[in-house]
């Protein structure tokens, strides 16, 4: 065969187009637009889009709220309880000031605060409630930002000299007291008499009211000068323990031995992970389970994409056969339906991300509006410990949600697209 005949043969042979050519996008776009006789298929595609959008939005919102809960609770629990606790062993902690100074010299330690702690019954004009009395010095109380930075009324000036106490807003409401009013503190560890130990009751003026934002702490903690607490609980010259605050709470494991060495006395050192292991483990388990459950929403939407595309392939059998006879390759047909299904998944994922982001940024306003609209309290601080609904979007976690939704949507298109590419033009046109 001469060169001219070879050229003619090659010119007459059908040549495949480049992958994802313009005509493939055009055909996929036409398949996505509904016609009167394709309304049912378009409805399925709409439900698939809505399912993916709502699934992604729900995942983003729920994971953000779970992260917000963990961050808020962790910040408030560690903000008032410290990252490590040093307690005495065998002998009372009478040398708490030198021990605290030595611990503060450990690299990574911000502050070491000696305290006296005991339980008591707090009484006011409106009722009684159990409280946790903690005695600290004025200088140390000012080094607890969660308390010193959230004083709603009064001040910590002359806290040591005034013999006043600082209480939380919820405790003040429950007891019906305001700044300057007296609260009575009752402790079972009172004076020792020939008849036994008698309870000790003493009234203290309210010198400051703080609001941490965690209802459990705002209604439980009462701070008083450490000398007064020592006298009230019969612990003259002693401290219950030393709260240690560090730069990074996640690094307390490596600092524990350093703190024990700096204490230079028999002491038992525990960190926040040991003291709250059950609570934070439960939060982590709940977070993982919620992620798995909500992923099923996206999976169901992806299955809708499969059913919708299979029906579309059956409905477009004649069109596929015509395209094949005029030169479209199997790869082109497969890519057309890949684009059709993946477009639903991509647009639905992107819309779900935008919806979730908007809700997360305005979640507290939305909660207040829904509470006002339904005349119910959707987020009771007494049950959820926090006074507001938190939401914290983690970029890595959000990206993983988006990637998961896109991968599921893409996988859902593979089988219908493969079936479309395998369609025999002769069989499709036989009964047309």
UniProtKB/TrEMBL annotation:
Q: Which residues cross the membrane?
A: 40-66, 289-313, 333-357, 399-418
Q: Which NCBIfam families match?
A: lolCE
Q: Which family does it belong to?
A: Belongs to the ABC-4 integral membrane protein family. LolC/E subfamily.
- Source species: Roseibium algae
From the Swiss-Prot or TrEMBL record, state where the protein is found.
Cell membrane
Q: Which residues does the UniProt record annotate as the domain MacB-like periplasmic core?
A: 49-250
ABC3 transporter permease C-terminal domain location, by residue? 291-425
Alphabetical keyword list: Cell membrane, Lipoprotein, Membrane, Transmembrane, Transmembrane helix, Transport
Membrane topology of this protein? Multi-pass membrane protein
**Which named protein is this?**
Lipoprotein-releasing ABC transporter permease subunit
Q: Name one Pfam family in it.
A: FtsX
